[in-house]
Design brief:
alpha+beta; CREG; 6 helices; secreted; CREG1 protein; 193 residues
């Protein structure tokens, strides 16, 4: 087992040296990198639904922090939501949520034969709240989401879609052996992916 951990760590260091992913000692940059390279995440709310009230409830949502490419990410997870969606109904009662994104959804982990639970298959857990974006931020949210999810533009207008963002208050990074790393929102927003 120790030999496998050493091999995985050595492989990760080679990738870092090539600039493929941030090094393990740059947790804030890793958080930005993972979010920017993910197109969806698992959003967990506290259910307001009859029979589930107060229970954790996770659901998959498309998201984007900006257009694809190395310079496109703002670090803000934007979402396109409707009040018809069950998790959005939960958020209307309690806007607190957590959002998990993982490199497991990219080719990276499969290419390196990392199980999604392997720490080298980095995942980030954000805690915070969901808020509707104001008019001045709606254009940015629209560009971020529609550039990655063009199908959204044709979704039924009668569903009253709106742009929202995840207001980040806490960040946990699992990208290497040794446990979670805590990143502050200030550290997170001060780096580029």
């Amino acid at each position: 087992m120790a030999g496998l951990a050493f091999f995985c760590a050595a492989a990760l260091l080679v990738l870092v040296a090539r600039g493929a992913i941030p090094p393990p000692d740059e947790a804030a940059r890793m958080a930005r990198f993972v979010l920017h390279n993910c197109d969806w995440g698992a959003l967990a709310t506290l259910s307001a639904q009859e029979g589930l009230r107060g229970q954790p409830f996770a659901n998959i949502f498309s998201l984007s922090d900006g257009p694809p490419g190395p310079l496109g990410g703002s670090g803000v997870p934007y979402l396109y939501l409707t009040d018809m969606e069950i998790s959005v109904q939960d958020l209307e009662i309690n806007s607190n949520a957590s959002l998990t994104v993982s490199l497991a959804q990219t080719p990276y982990c499969k290419k390196h034969k990392y199980d999604p639970q392997n720490p080298l298959c980095a995942h980030i857990i954000f805690c915070g709240s969901i808020v509707k974006v104001n008019d001045s931020e709606a254009g940015l949210a629209k560009k971020a989401l529609f550039s990655r999810h063009p199908e959204m533009e044709s979704w039924p207008k009668d569903h009253n879609w709106f742009f929202a963002k995840f207001n980040i208050t806490n960040i946990w990074v699992l990208d290497y052996f040794g446990g979670l790393k805590i990143v502050t929102p200030e550290e997170y927003y001060s780096v580029k992916p």
